[in-house]
Amino acid sequence: MADAAFLALTVITIGSAIAALEMRSLIYGSIALMGTLGGIAGFFFLLDAPFVALFQLAVYVGSIAVLILFTVMLVKRELIFKKIEDRRRKFAGIGLMLIIMVSLGAVFLDSGIKTITTDEPPVDFRDIGTDFVIYYWPALILMGLILAGSVTGALILARREDVENDQRVS
Amino acid sequence: MSVIAPDFKLSGFIKAIINDAVWFLLIFSLIGFPIIMMILFFIPMPVIDGELLTPFLAFTYLADPTRTLPIVQAFMTTDMFKIMAFPGFGFAALLAAGTIFVERKMLAKLQLRVGPFYCGKIEGILQLAGDGLKLISKEIIIPAKADKPIFWAAPVLFVASAAAFVALIPVAPGWVVADVDMGLLAVFAVIGFFPIVTILSAWSANSKFPFIGGIRALFQMVSFEIPLILSLLGVVMVTGTLNLSEIAASQSSFPWIVFLPVGAIVFFITMLAELERIPFDLPEAESEIVAGWLTELSGMMYGLVQLGTYLKLYAFAALFVVLFLGGWNGPMIVPPFPMELATEGIELGPVTAKIGGLEPLLTQVITQEMLNGTLMFVLKTVGVIFFILLPRGVFPRIRVDMLLDLGWTKLIGLAFVNIFIALALVYAGVLGPGGLQ
User: Fold this and answer.
1) How big is the A-B interface in CB pairs under 8 Å?
2) What pLDDT is attached to residue A89?
3) Which residues pair with B352 in a beta bridge?
4) What's the confidence (pLDDT) of residue B241?
5) Which chain A residues are closer than 8 Å to B186 by Cβ?
6) Is pLDDT larger for residue A2 or for residue B294?
């Protein structure tokens, strides 16, 4: 069952990734990108990490993909892209990708991944939270400050000063 | 008297029904029954209690409650029943249908109109069925330059997302379709799908009004998702779990709205915005952009989107009940079923009628807790839905800059205030270990 799910997810992820690159229509391409990101969420589910999987869905499929979709919809494709048909480049790209995939696979297989035991209990998200607060608190606080700074900066940037104040009610 | 069918006669109606029934029985007994028998002849039937289950025996089983009730009980505990009927789609669709009717009638009363009146003898009670029939029988028109695959898929995806949302809601103890450990996170993930479906549907129609409406919907949903998520973190902090059933069960003494009223208010406002309801109905602003992102949808596609919208409304109201109002907890007002009727039988004069399979059904599946929990849950949910509907009667639509300002500055700030209240409650020892709960 898990093997079948893994195979199906692999097909969906890789297939929609290729589709995202190859589709002529940008909208369908970004939908295919959503499929890729959703497929990765499925892998996290298979790895007993539902916390990461649901965040993957909520953040990547729910927000990032929507941003991409939204941007793409406001773009006229003909104005910015001129498609250059070049078969040699295409085959060179495919060959390069194959070389990279094979070498990455060789590195993974050589790295002792086969000796990892897979029957360990899944990590509880409460443990992750405890670790964050106890061992990694400086990193957490730094991250919080950076995020707060960026949110404040975004809010300041988003305040439009050119709007007449009497048009705004608040 | 109805104007739509002036020649209607009840006697004629009954006569027509009896006529149809007789013809149906005649055709079924002459053609259908032999065909069923012929098919059954080739299918190997199971052996039950050392007896071959012939079709006649199967009919006997159906008529015998001692044999039927265990089958009913087994069916009620299957996942299929949960998905299709009780805590899942059927239950939610029933409440959604009720909501539509009550909304139309109540709005009419608020605005001194009549509302649905002619369908059905009493106060237009059949208006909903009439509208449903109309939508089903209407032709589906697709704009010539629409992107057909996405245009067809969008309403179905919308209903599917809403149904996935409904599946996560616990209605009574143990009665939930998908009891996920990360229930609340799953809710956030599902909510994230609505803007995608909306903007895809709007874009694929290739028409101006839907596109404007879709972009408005996207702005609104994305900007209100953040305060929505933040406002629910307080509840997660005080309960220490993301499982919706555990959150509901943790409120047996008091609902969280007592301690986290700010979060509840922020969640309610963001809920109105996510549901595109007045005063935040800019995506469907009918006086500006026809019907917003629904403009090009026709026939049953529009019907599906409406169904999805009201399922979503039910799910949000139910989520509010589960998180802030205590879910199924409440006073036990459903009386216990007199068990001696099931164990000893019903005495009717000289005859004692004893129904065999009733006792396990009543002690294991339809228990008093389940009935009371469902009643409490439905009462609270209906109350919340009432408060969601109420602004539509009085408020005007607000401007888009006011909407975004509200979402991005005020509500996020209030949500953070709520988080600090929750933190203070936990660290001061009022709630959590050693505190009240």
Assistant:
1) 69
2) 83
3) B347
4) 82
5) 54
6) B294
- Give the tokens for residue A26: 């940008």
> Nearest Cα to B236, choosing from B187, B184, B191, B186?
B184
**Dist CA A87 CA A72 (whole Å):** 26
Q: Is the pLDDT of residue B33 over 90?
A: no
Give the residue extent of every domain in chain B.
84-110+141-427
Chain B residues in contact with A125 (beta carbon < 8 A)? 182, 242
Strand boundaries in A5-51, DSSP class E: none
Q: Which CATH number fits domain A1-82: 1.20.120.1200, 3.10.280.10, 2.60.120.1440, 3.40.50.2300?
A: 1.20.120.1200
pLDDT band at A80 (very low <50, low <70, confident <90, very high): low
**Using a CB-CB distance cutoff of 8 angstroms, which residues of chain B are in contact with residue A69?**
196, 199-200
Cβ-based neighbours of B127, under 8 Å, separated by 6 or more: B101, B104, B116, B119, B120
Query: Which two three-digit tokens encode residue B110?
Result: 């608020």
What's the whole-number average pLDDT of chain B?
Answer: 84
Mean pLDDT of B319-340: 84
Contact indicator for A36, A65 with CB cutoff of 8 Å: no
pTM here? 0.80
Distance in angstroms (rounded) separating the CA atoms of residues B211 and B214: 5
Whole-number Å distance between alpha carbons of B175 and A164: 54
Q: What is the pLDDT of residue B382?
A: 92
pLDDT of residue B314: 92
User: What average pLDDT does range A13-37 have in this prediction?
Assistant: 86
DSSP codes of every residue in B305-332: HHHHHHHHHHHHHHHHHHHHS-TT-S--
Which region holds residue A165: left if phi is over 0, alpha if psi is between -120 and 50, else beta? alpha
Chain B: give the shortest CA distance to residue A83, in Å. 22
Query: Which helix (H) or strand (E) covers residue A11, if one does?
Result: helix A2-22
Structure token pair of residue A104: 């990455």
H helical segments located in B325-428: 339-343, 358-360, 368-389, 391-394, 400-405, 412-427
Structure tokens at A132: 């964050």
Percentage, residues of chain B above pLDDT 70: 95
**Of B292, B230, B269, which Cα lies nearest the Cα of B403?**
B269
List residues of B whose CB lies inside 8 A of any A CB.
147, 150, 180-182, 185-186, 188-189, 191-193, 195-196, 199-200, 203, 211, 215, 218, 222, 225, 240, 242, 399, 401-402, 405, 408-409
A136: Cα separation from own chain's centroid: 24
Residues B323 and B307 sit within 8 Å (Cβ to Cβ): no
Q: What is the dihedral of CA A124, A126, A130, A135, to 10 degrees?
A: 30
Least CA distance to B194: which residue of chain A? A62
The predicted-structure confidence for B119-170, as pLDDT tens digits, reads as follows 777 777 888 888 888 888 888 888 888 888 888 889 999 999 999 999 998 9
| Tokens, residue B9 | 């006669």
Report the sign of the C-alpha dihedral through residues B222, B224, B226, B232, in that order.
negative
At B402-437, the pLDDT tens digits run: 888 888 888 888 998 999 988 888 888 777 665 565
